[in-house]
């Protein structure tokens, strides 16, 4: 990796809604010995903010991207053993904490989607603005690439991915064009895909909604990295990792992610008692309290400072009590007390 890529994390990355995240986490991180998990470490901006704001807090930083871990590790080295980097995907939070001998934590922060590092490294293939290999893996050491998806999935599967993950209304046209093109030669470059998408979308539709390939690239990235399936597991696992009084803060950047977070939070913040009971049994009271009213967005000041905050949707919740067995996601192991 070029030396510059590991030494200028702070200048390359402005963490989204950092002040608001710190404000929401503060009550949970007030006590000495508090531990927070930064589930999406990236270039370490949020973690650095937490370590500076709360000198008594330890942060465990997870990331599936080895390059991000190396870069953030250098940035956060001055904090010594208050920072622990771990190569892991965030749905593995329970296993990570078990390996570290940590029972429950006081905070969890999740900043979802593609990171600044991945967008800025052209050769990773996340950007439709510059030609690069069709990769899009967040962990470039393992798994299928975007080229694998485009060259091996059948037309119906490609159309489904573009429609469901990219909300692309011209998904069938694009999928048909991909299959026709790969019959001549395999797709290997992002520029080839951009040209195919542009040619598949009617000219009048290309005049609005931003870059015509934006939705296709989002859909492929989600498929390559299994992002929604991982998030479906990660949110309940993160809630189970929280101590009573602990808080989870999640920043999502597209509606599919935000919907998963909203659903998990709402399930925990809603009584499970039948609505016609005169008295709510204690075993049916909510185990979460919503800290934000709906999803918060970036204000004008934040947008001016950090354009990448434009689509952020921030939600936060606080754990009120352990999750009752009848309200717990059966696929998520209960953590030891």
Under CATH at level 1, the class of the largest domain stands as Alpha Beta
Kindly, what is the distance between the CA atoms of the first and last residues, rounded to a whole number of angstroms?
42 Å
Globally, the shape reads: globular
Number of structural domains? 2
- Lateral arrangement of strands in the main beta sheet: 3-2-1-4-5-7-6
> What is the alpha-carbon Rg in Å?
21 Å
- What is the annotated CATH architecture of the largest domain? 3-Layer(aba) Sandwich
Q: Structural class of the secondary structure composition?
A: alpha/beta
**Count of runs of 4 or more consecutive helical residues:** 15
Task: Give the SSE string.
Answer: HHHEHEHEHEHHHHHHHEHEHE
- Considering DSSP H and I runs of 4 or more, what fraction of the residues is helical? 40-55%
Flag low-confidence runs.
1-7
CATH superfamily of the largest domain: Vaccinia Virus protein VP39
Tell me the strand percentage band. Answer: 5-15%
* Extended strand count: 7
Q: Report the CATH topology name of the largest domain.
A: Rossmann fold
Region (Disordered): 297-337
Protein name: Ribosomal RNA small subunit methyltransferase H
Catalytic activity: cytidine(1402) in 16S rRNA + S-adenosyl-L-methionine = N(4)-methylcytidine(1402) in 16S rRNA + S-adenosyl-L-homocysteine + H(+)
Family: Belongs to the methyltransferase superfamily. RsmH family.
């Amino acid at each position: 990796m070029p030396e510059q890529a590991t030494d200028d994390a702070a200048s390359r990355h402005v963490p989204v809604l950092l002040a608001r995240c710190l404000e929401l986490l503060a009550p949970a991180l007030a006590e000495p010995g508090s531990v927070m998990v930064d589930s999406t470490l990236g270039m370490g901006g949020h973690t650095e903010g937490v370590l500076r704001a709360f000198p008594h807090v330890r942060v465990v930083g997870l990331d599936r991207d080895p390059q991000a871990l190396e870069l953030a590790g250098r940035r956060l080295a001055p904090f010594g053993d208050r920072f622990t980097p771990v190569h892991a995907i965030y749905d593995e939070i329970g296993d990570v904490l078990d390996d570290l001998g940590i029972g429950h934590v006081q905070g969890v922060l999740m900043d979802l989607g593609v990171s600044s590092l991945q967008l800025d490294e052209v050769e990773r293939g996340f950007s439709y603005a510059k030609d690069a290999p069709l990769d899009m893996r967040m962990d470039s050491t393992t798994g299928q690439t975007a080229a694998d998806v485009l060259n091996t999935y059948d037309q119906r599967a490609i159309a489904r991915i573009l429609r469901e993950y990219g909300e692309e209304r011209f998904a069938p046209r694009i999928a048909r064009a991909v299959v026709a093109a790969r019959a001549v030669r395999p797709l290997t470059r992002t520029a080839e895909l951009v040209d195919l998408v542009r040619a598949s979308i009617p000219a009048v539709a290309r005049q609005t909604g931003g870059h015509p390939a934006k939705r296709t690239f989002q859909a492929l990235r989600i498929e390559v990295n299994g992002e929604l399936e991982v998030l479906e597991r990660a949110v309940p696992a993160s809630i189970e990792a929280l101590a009573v009084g602990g808080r989870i803060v999640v920043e999502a950047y597209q509606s599919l992610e935000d919907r998963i977070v909203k659903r998990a939070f709402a399930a925990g913040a809603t009584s499970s008692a039948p609505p016609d009971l005169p008295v709510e049994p204690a075993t049916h009271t909510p185990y979460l309290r919503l800290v934000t009213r709906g999803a918060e967005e970036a204000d004008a000041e934040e947008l001016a400072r950090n354009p990448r905050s434009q689509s952020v949707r921030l939600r936060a919740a606080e754990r009120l009590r352990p999750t009752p067995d009848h309200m717990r996601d059966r696929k998520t192991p209960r953590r030891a007390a």
